[in-house]
Structures are given as structure tokens and as C-alpha cells.
Amino acid sequence: MKKISVILGCIILYSCSNTDASKVEMAEVKKVELNPNLKPTFPVNDPTVRSQANFNDYAWQMFVALNWPASATERGVADLTKNIGDPGSVVWQSFRTSGSVFLPNAQDPGSWNDGYPMEFKLKQISKVDPAIKEHLKSIGQAVGGPLTDQDSNYTYYEKYMNEVEYNFIHTNKYYDQTVLSSLTTNMKIPTQSMEIKSAWKIMTKNDDQSKFFTAPAVIEGLDGKPFKAVVGLVGLHIIYKSADSPQWVWATFEHINNVPGDPGSTATHFSYNNPNCSAADCPPNVATAPKIPTQVTRYTPLSKEAKASNAKWQLMLKGTVWENYELINMQWPSDPNDPGNPQGTPTPNTMANTTMETYIQRTSSCMGCHSTAGTLTENIKTNYSFLFLEAQSPSKKTK
Amino acid sequence: MSYLNNYRINFWGGISTNVCTANNDDVGYFYADPIQAKLSPTLLPMTDDAAIETLQANPGWNYFGDYTTKFQDAKISSFGEPDAIESTGAIVGQGIYLLGSLDPSNANPTPIGSPIMVDMDSTGTSCTQILVGGLQIGGTDNPIFRITENTRCYTRSLQTVDAATNNGAFQVKSINGYQFGKANTSWQLSFAYDESWEFDASNPQIATLVAKAKAAKGITVVFTQFEVVLMYSREAIIQEYENGNGTINPVLGYTIGSIGIWEEGEAATCLPGRLLEAYQPIKTSLCQSDTYAQLNETTGILSLNMASTFIKPVARTDRNDLSTMSPTADPGNLQLAVNINGTLEIIASIPYSASNYYSTGGIVDIQLNEAEIATIKQGDLQLVAIDPATGKITATYAQEQTYRFISDDRGVYVNPNETKNLSFAITKWGQPVTEDLDLTITFSDSGQIAVEFDLYTEMNVGFSTKAGAIHFNVLDASTHTYSGTTTIKAADAASFQLTTNWIQAGFKQVNLYVKGAQNANYYMVIRTYPDDDYSTIPVAQKYTWDFVYNEVLRYYYVIFPAMSTRLPLNNEVLISQQVFGVIQKRISEPYANTTLLMPITRDMSPGKVQLLNEYLTYVNQ
Q: Does residue B606 have a cis bond before it (omega within 30 degrees)?
């Protein structure tokens, strides 16, 4: 991602309303001042003073930079002619999806910018989406699985990586499972690598679309047939390997109307909760049968630090769709450089996004879980990234 | 010769441990059957969520602990030969770190986890262990010394400091009435020299250490752990859980230690030397823990490890501030004395510094002359204070344990139908024993569970010598204490074995007394695994998630949530299909002596390990 530092000042918008076909009236000029703290520049370094409050602000700075409108021609670059909140796709959406990197038969995915701009496609309905073997008969109530919204639609997920990580994978051919299988020492992903995981719901008449960041998508249904829908962003993970956090830093955001109880939400229709359904009829945080809405509650209420950070940044983003998003928390290593503590002491110890760690909220730890990440053949660890599980093997050449 | 008598590199600073208290007697019988590794009858019929809620409402002090144990801001402070210690040099100020194990399944040169502290007996209070995968001096970016070798150490010289003598009002956290600010422990780890050691040969202190280690067996690291303090009070940690936070509550304490030379024939985990125990009742004495003393016959220097000898009356005011160390109690005009048939003879003044002892590893060196050397071999050593004006003894602090046991068998695991040979050496006044010794072995329950809930257990192992099985009588029926005796021939005392055999699953503390001693000369904690046998259960029943989860994994999911922050143990698809290979590796033999073995708590019986392994193979065939 290119590093361009520009500070935007006031921007004056003009709008016209046409109430009489024979006349054109100029509507009152609206003056929208963009807060100078809203910058398209990604904050590459950790806060100097390592505290939860500072890391929360760091997370929001990332969120703003990544949700800046994207260049129409270059991946990972902000369009500086636009402001955050202006229509169109955003920077992280221009990153490479994992599917565009780990191609069938380990094909070379090409240059970073290849295939851009691309059609927005979704198909993954589970954070972990394995094939279910027929002979596993047990119910497995507490397992992960698809998340169904209150409109009986699945939630869809997509994963992305930035240019730094892409180049690392591409240069080393780590999109090829046979190359990964030959490694004997654990992977070390470069500093300033970044991964994004997004969660989307299909917009329905029950949703106020003006409050969601939306995008038209082509969705591949379970039957393999594609259909078009407008989807709204409900969850966003940002993981970034800074110079001072070899264990990466882990921010997660949600839409404020996902579940009841989050500050700032005025929803009457929650995406993932029916307040009128009792716990007996709608046991919380349990995977449901297809088409049955999942009743989701937030296990860990937002901390006071997260609330304070949200209040500040949502105010700055007022008037944009992004005021409807909230930081759940940022997990960071409070002891990052201790040889006797490679895990770095994840702080806070647990953290969960209701759209992505729905069923494991109590023990969810981004760093804890990702510390186990390895290749498909488990020969090495892959430095907190699970993306390498998607690496494919080359097709066998026939003579 | 030992680390006491040879070149040393001393350090001090902090030590942190993050044990999960479900592997600890705070949670106890009402929640877990730690012998069977099963939920207790109280929790068993509940749903997982209800069981967890019950636990979190009445938890131990660290329900979310992950067992990570590490030095924290520990730095080299001095180095040198005995009686020639220096405090300036290239190595002074370098950080020292205990490392986790390398992954045996690949060639990665750095560890992925930390050392861990894991109880053998989770109901016990007398012995735990730290498993380690290496040692490093110098930080991540500039290491000057690094060893990667799996080893472990055990609780030695455990003392609990009485509240009356420790007036630190801060953070004296009390969980279930147990004052955690006050445990004082010593540890010893050893690393055998190996050509794979990485070191900066241009650092003269490191070069000296490595050269001497290569000429001997290796290096030994002796360190203490004291003034340990929690982060949260009981009320505060329960509030964290009620708020939905999986907050950890590690203890942080001081450490004082030394790296020295490990000689051939020396124990790896048992501090060498003559052992002097606190003499007076603990409540009134300034001395509450052990002193170790050893003579270098060649140089005539007697070296004493006094890192834990005297109490530290004033605790630090800020839990996290380990940058300074307040003095210990001042013992006055401290002298080394010898009790020869009831007559006390003063040998030499001990130059102990209450304000600076920690910077030299707590070790004091005294040059003795030939006469003094001869005298100290004739009776029990004592630490006394005398009035310089009158020469009268004003205090007696420590008294030698006449017969000293040395053994690496401190925490012992015994599998079903297994026998193990446990090795011991006995010395008298630091010298070979010259008379046959009556040895009494008693079994007792090592923890509070038995006392509090009247849940005493039977003997879990038998003992035998080369002469045959030792017969045990009931010493106290109400507490299921058993006692047996045998005789150790003088010629065998320097190296004798007891063979132990599995009888049933359980935990027991085994105490060894020589010649009717009032206090045990030595103790071990022995854990015997259950003989779980699933061979007769039909495949269609046992190789199912429901069976395996309830039989094996559910205990860990409910009791040890830290494991599930890595791999959610209640997730059928994840465990059975996606990470099954990782689990199979982690429960396998190559990981047994590493910090990476699963479960971390080392309480899964061989039968359960086999069941889990077979299930994972079956569903993925």
C-alpha cells in the first residue's frame, strides 16, 4: 500500500433538488467539514505508549484509512479526490482476496494489480468451512458453522491481504502447497503485512440500507448457482503486523445494529437477534438449522475504553455511513519482545466479533487461535496467518 | 564441587507465572476429579455453559491462566569465581530468559511457546514443576547465549512466610484464605553441554562459562521465587468474569539466581550442598528458608547460598516495579558455627549484606583455614548471631539437616502397571555416610483437599529395594497415612534406589525420614494415572464425538479455558477434522518432555490418550 500523507480541509458540497420540472432550484449549500483526524494514511507504527486506549485509537485510524474510497485503477490506494463516506468501494476491498491468490492448481496469481477492478463475489458462509463427512452423526451443538441472520439469510465472508503480504506469497510461491510442504522452519511474514476478514449480510426491506456500508455482490449459493444481491457490511477484522508487534495487532469492528446492547444503536430490527424470542425458544449463540435465524448475543460487553474510543470516532464520522460501526476491541501483545514469551501476552486475553466468533465468544482469542496457524500438512507454523491453508497443489502433468 | 564452588554468573529481577487454578487446589473437589481428569459429580450433569458459570462464580485465583512462566526483567548483575565476584563487565545488565521448547516436528530454531509451571498434584501445596525448553542471555535482537534443551525443575525449599513478619500491606491477595504473597521457593535446572549451544565468544564471561561447562557436564541455573503477588484480588477477578472478560491473573514475584557449572555426578534439579533449615519457630525468626553450603576442598572456600535465608520484611509498594529490592532483615553479627556433640564452636564471620545480597545471587563465600575445614566436618552447621562485645549468641537462625537427601526424583509420574527406579544419595555433614541408616517411608495426602473434605486416599504406589518389597503399616487410619521402614547400608547410601510400582490412580506425598528424624529429610509427590481401558467398548460407540468429548475433552473445555483460546475443544468439526493432526502430534511421545505437550496439565491417562488418538485416526481414515 502506498504511503501518501495528505491532510484534507473543508469540503463544500452542493446539492440540487428538482421539485418543479420547469425550474431548477439550488438547495441550501451544505457545508461538510471533514475532521482533520480522519486521514487516508494508514498508521504503520504502534502507539509509542502501549495502552488499551491508545491501541483502540490506533484501530480506528486503521479503520478510517482502510475505509477510504479506493482508487479505481490501483489496488490498495486511496482515492484522494474523495472523502471517507463517499460512495464506492473502499481501500481494503481493493486488496487481493485470498481466493484470487490461492488459485486452483497453484496457478501463478500474477502481479498485485492484476484483475483490478474486479466483481465483488461472495460464497463462503462459515469462518471455517470444511466439508462435513457423512459419518459424523453427532449433533455438535456447540460447534461453529454458518451464521443465519434474522431474515433467514446466511452471512457471507471474504478474506483479503495487502500488497506487502501478497508480494511475499507471490515471490516465494507460497500459493503452491507443494512449496509450503517443503519448508522446514516456521514462516516469518514481513512487517507491514495485513489481512482483512469481512462479514456481510444480504440487505432486505427490514434493513435501513442508509446505515450500512453496502455493495452489490454476486453470491454463489450452496447449490452453486449465483445470484445478485446488495450486501451490507456487518463485521470487519483487521490484522496487521507492525514493526513492534511480531504477534500482529488485531482489531475488530461490527455494525452497531448486530445485537442489542451496543451503545449508539437505535435499531428496532437487529441483524442477529430477536429480542422477542425467549432464551428457551431461541438459545443464544448456538448454530441453527438452515434458514433458522441464529440468536446472537454479545458475551463480553464493550469495555469502557472501547466505548470511549467509539464515541470519539463515531462523532468524527458523523454524517457518513461509518458512524454506524463500532470497535469491539483491539487485541495487542503487551509483552511483544520477550524471548521467553513468544505469544506476547495477548491483551485483552479474550475478544470476539459476534459475526465471526459467534459460537466461541467466551474463549475467543485472535492471537491465541492464530498462533496455531500452520500449513495444510502441518509441517510448519505460518506466523499467525490461516490463509496458507488455502494453498493449492499444481495439477499433475500427463505425459 | 558445584555451582557454589565454581565460576558463576548471577542475576536478579522478576519471575511471572500464569498457572490455571483449576490445576490447583483452589477449585478443588467440588469441580474436578483431578485424579480421573473428569468433572466432579457437581458439574457433570450440567451443561457446559452452566458448569462454566458455576466455576466462574466461585473460581480459583486464575481460571484463565495458560501456565506461562518466565523471568521478567531479570538481568545479569555480577559474575566471577568464588570470593572474587565482579559487578562490572560486558555481561552485566544483559537480560536472562527461560525459553519454551522447540517444536520436535520441524527444524524451526526458535520456540513457539513459553516455559510452563504445571502441578503434578493439583490438590497439593508442596510441589510443582517448571518445564523449560532452553535458556537465553541477551534479548531477541542481540542474544549472546542460547541453549535449546528440554528440562524441568521442581519446588525445593518451599517456605510460606508468616503474615506477622511481612508487613507489606499492599496486594496481599487472599484467595480462599491462602496468602499468595508469601510463598518462597527455590529451583534448579541443568543443561548438559552440547555443541549446538550458541554463544558470543567475544563476551569474556560467556566464553568462560562455556569453556568450563564443556570441561564439566554443563551448566546449572539455580533461582528463587518470592514475594509473589497477584494482579487482581478475588473480588476484582470475579467481577472480570461477570463482565464477560477472560482475564488472566498471573503472579509476579522476585527472583535471585546464579548460573554455574554442573559437574559430573551432581543432581540436575536438586540444589547441592549441606542444607541448613530455619532453626526457630518461623513466627519469631528472621530466617524462614533454607541455606545451602558447600566446601571447595581445593581452595578452602565455603560458599553459602543465602538467597532465601532471611526474610524481606518490607514488600514492594508497586506490584509491577521490580527495579529495586528492599533489604532483608538484618541478622546482626552473623557467624558460621558447628555443633559438635552439643558444643557450639564459632568458625567464621559470614559477610552477609542485607542490602546487597541479591546482586551476587545471594551467595556468600568464606575462606576457611585447614583447622576450620576440619571442624566443620564434625557436626551440624549453624547460622548464629553473636554479640561482638560479649561473644554470646544472641540468635540462632539455621540448623543443618544432618542427613541430607539428594535426588532428582521429586515429582514422579507412574503409568498403570509401570515400575520406576527412584534414585537417592544421602550424605552426613556433606560427607559419605559411615553407618547404616534406618529409613522410614510414609505416605500422606499432599494437599488441602484431603484435609478439608476428609478425602484421604489409599497408597497409590508400592516400594521395594533390592532386598524386596517394603511392608507398610497403617500409621493413622483416619488420615490414611501409611508407614514402612527399610535399612540403607552405609556403603549404599551414596547411591541407592527405591523401586516404585503402580497400585492405583492417585496423588500421594511420600516422605522419607532417616533415623527417626522429626521432620522429613526428603519428600516426593507421586502421581499415578488411572488405568483407563476402552478396549472392550464397541467401535461404533467409542469412536464418536459424543463419547470422546464427554470422556476426554469436556474436562479440559470446562476446567482449562486457556486451552480453548488456542483450539476450541468443544468444536467437533475443528477438532475432529481440521486440527486433528496437530492434536495427534501434541499428545504423542516426542512431545512428552516439551513445554508443548497436550494437555499442558499432564493429567490425561495413557488410556485416554490412546482413545483420543484412535478416534482422530478413525474419523479421518
A: no
